[in-house]
Write a structure and sequence with these properties.
globular, disordered C terminus, mainly alpha, two-stranded antiparallel sheet, about 475 residues, 2 domains, single chain
C-alpha cells in the first residue's frame, strides 16, 4: 500500500482554527472582558452583558445540531435551582429586587452553565476556556503585584499595598478569586495527561500566581486554594501528592525560616486565620454576627426564607450590637468610602436566610449533584484527565470558598464560568460525545454515519471538527478513548 506524500495532503486553511473554536468564542469574550477595570457603582458589567450573547449563541448552535440538547440528568440538575429561586423571588421586598435577584441567580447557576454544556464540545474546547481563565489570572496577578510594589492598590493597615487587580478597592475579593481559580486550573492541567510542554508551562504559571494570591491578603481564598490543590494532588496520585507536600513544606521552611521571605504584614494576616476564637479582628466579628442573624431569619421563615435580596432589610432587626455599620474601603485614586454589609459573606447562610430550606436544598443540592457526577466521571476520564482535574477543582474551590464569601460584584461572572466548566464535565451528555466520535470515525474511513443530517457532515478530507482527520489507529488510538471529551 502506498503512503500518500506530504504534497498530497490538503493544507489546513488559516481560518480553520478560528472556525473550530467558534462555539466557545463568546465564552472567551466573557473571560477577556473580566480583565477590564470595573466601575464602582455599576450594576451589570460588560462581561455580564456578554453572557447574553453566550446564551443566544448556545441556542443557535443547538438548533443547528437538530438533536436533543440535554440528557435527562443534566436537565434535572440544572433545572433544580429554578424551583427554590423562583419561590423565594415571590417574597422579595420590592418587585425590582425580585427581578434583579432572579436574573442574577439564574445567570450564575442555571443559564451560563447550561449554555456552556451546549457549547463546549470536547477537550479542545475545554482547554481553550481553561487557558483563557489562566490568562485572565496571569493578567490580574500582574496588575496586583504592580499595585503592591508601587503602593497603588487598596488600603490595608494604612498603606495602599493590597493587590486588587482591575476590580478596585470596592471589590477586594475579585482579584483573589480570579487568581485562585487560575492556580486551580493550572494545577489540574499540570497534573493531567497532556503534553510535556503544557504540563511544564502550567506548573510554572501556577507557581507564579501564588505571589499575587498571597498579596491579595484574602484568607478565604488561601484556605479554599490550599484545600482544592491538595485534593487535586490526591486525585492525581497519592505518591505524587506526598512528594509535592514534602517539597512544599521544605521550601516554606527554607524561604520563610531561613531567608525571611514574607513581610510582617503577610505573616500577621496568615497568623490571624487561627485567631478566630480568641481575639478575632472586626471583620471576623462582623461575619460571625451576620451568620447568627442569618440563622435567626431562617428560624422565622424556615421554608422559603425572607426573600431574594432581602437580607439587608432584615439584618438590623436580627443582628446583635457587635455588628459594625460597614467596612472601610479606600485605594490609590479612590476616596474613602464606607461600604455597607449587605450579605453574610457565606453563600450557604445567604441561601438559608433569603431562600429558606427549600432554596438550600434545591440550589446547594444541585451543586452537590454536580460534584458527585464530576468525581464519578473523573474515575473513567482516560486521556481527558487534565480537563477533569481542572473542572473538578474549580467546582470544589467554589464550594469551599462559599464558606467565606457569596455572589455579588463584578467577579460574580467568574463564578458563572467556573460552574459552566464544571457542568460541562459533570453533565456533558455521553450521547453528544458519541455523536462527535462517530463523525470523526466516519470521516476517517470515508463513509457517513447514517443517523447524522447531511448538513452536519464535513467536506471530503475534513473531519466534522474542522481539522484534517487522523488515520485510523488500533485499539489504543484516539478512536478508542473511553470518554470522547
Amino acid at each position: 500500500m502506498s503512503t500518500p506524500s506530504a504534497a498530497s495532503v490538503p493544507l489546513v486553511p488559516p481560518l480553520s482554527a478560528l472556525h473550530r473554536a467558534a462555539p466557545v468564542l463568546p465564552v472567551l469574550a466573557v473571560i477577556a472582558l473580566m480583565g477590564l477595570p470595573a466601575e464602582t457603582d455599576s450594576g451589570a458589567t460588560p462581561a455580564d452583558l456578554t453572557c447574553g450573547l453566550v446564551l443566544l449563541w448556545a441556542a443557535v448552535c443547538t438548533v443547528r445540531r437538530a438533536r436533543r440538547p440535554l440528557a435527562r440528568t443534566a436537565a434535572v440538575v440544572l433545572g433544580l435551582p429554578v424551583v427554590g429561586i423562583a419561590v423565594s423571588a415571590t417574597g422579595a421586598v420590592t418587585p425590582g429586587d425580585a427581578i434583579t435577584g432572579l436574573a442574577r441567580y439564574l445567570q450564575v447557576f442555571v443559564l451560563v452553565p447550561l449554555a456552556m454544556v451546549l457549547l463546549v464540545r470536547d477537550r479542545r474546547d475545554a482547554r481553550l476556556v481553561l487557558w483563557g481563565l489562566a490568562g485572565l489570572a496571569l493578567w490580574q496577578g500582574a496588575v496586583g503585584v504592580h499595585q503592591y510594589l508601587t503602593g497603588t492598590g487598596a488600603s490595608y493597615q494604612g498603606a495602599y499595598i493590597r493587590a486588587v487587580g482591575t476590580f478596585g478597592p470596592h471589590d477586594v475579593m475579585g482579584m483573589a478569586a480570579v487568581v485562585a481559580s487560575g492556580v486551580v486550573v493550572l494545577t489540574g492541567l499540570a497534573l493531567g495527561t497532556g503534553g510535556r510542554r503544557q504540563r511544564m508551562a502550567a506548573a510554572v504559571c501556577a507557581l507564579a500566581l501564588l505571589v499575587p494570591l498571597a498579596l491579595s491578603f484574602s484568607r478565604g481564598s488561601w484556605i479554599a486554594t490550599a484545600v482544592t490543590c491538595g485534593a487535586q494532588l490526591l486525585l492525581a496520585g497519592v505518591r505524587r501528592a506526598v512528594k509535592v507536600f514534602a517539597a512544599g513544606a521544605a521550601a516554606s521552611v527554607v524561604l520563610v525560616g531561613g531567608f525571611g521571605v514574607g513581610g510582617s504584614v503577610l505573616q500577621e494576616r496568615l497568623t490571624s486565620i487561627t485567631q478566630v476564637a480568641g481575639a478575632p479582628d472586626q471583620s471576623v466579628v462582623d461575619r460571625y454576627t451576620m451568620w447568627a442573624a442569618s440563622i435567626d431569619m431562617w428560624h422565622e421563615h424556615p421554608v422559603r426564607g425572607v426573600g431574594l435580596k432581602a437580607f439587608p432589610a432584615y439584618r438590623d432587626s436580627h443582628a446583635s450590637l457587635a455588628l459594625s455599620s460597614g467596612s472601610d474601603t479606600e485605594g490609590d485614586g479612590q476616596a474613602f468610602r464606607r461600604q455597607p454589609l449587605l450579605s453574610p459573606h457565606n453563600m450557604y447562610m445567604l441561601l438559608l436566610s433569603e431562600q429558606g430550606l427549600l432554596g438550600l436544598l434545591t440550589v446547594a443540592g444541585s451543586w452537590l449533584a454536580l460534584l458527585v457526577c464530576a468525581l464519578r466521571r473523573l474515575r473513567r476520564a482516560g486521556r481527558a484527565r487534565d480537563c477533569a482535574l481542572a473542572a473538578c477543582g474549580l467546582l470544589l474551590w467554589q464550594l469551599v470558598n462559599f464558606l467565606y464569601s457569596d455572589i455579588g460584584g463584578p467577579s460574580t461572572t467568574l463564578t458563572a464560568v467556573c460552574f459552566g466548566v464544571a457542568a460541562w464535565w459533570s453533565l456533558g451528555g455521553r450521547s453528544a460525545g458519541c455523536a462527535d466520535l462517530r463523525l470523526r470515525r466516519g470521516a476517517a474511513i470515508g463513509r457517513r454515519p447514517s443517523a447524522t443530517p447531511s448538513w452536519l457532515v464535513a467536506p471530503r478530507g475534513e473531519a466534522a471538527d474542522g481539522h484534517s482527520p487522523a488515520p485510523l489507529q488500533g485499539p489504543t488510538g484516539p478512536a478508542a478513548e473511553s470518554d470522547p471529551r
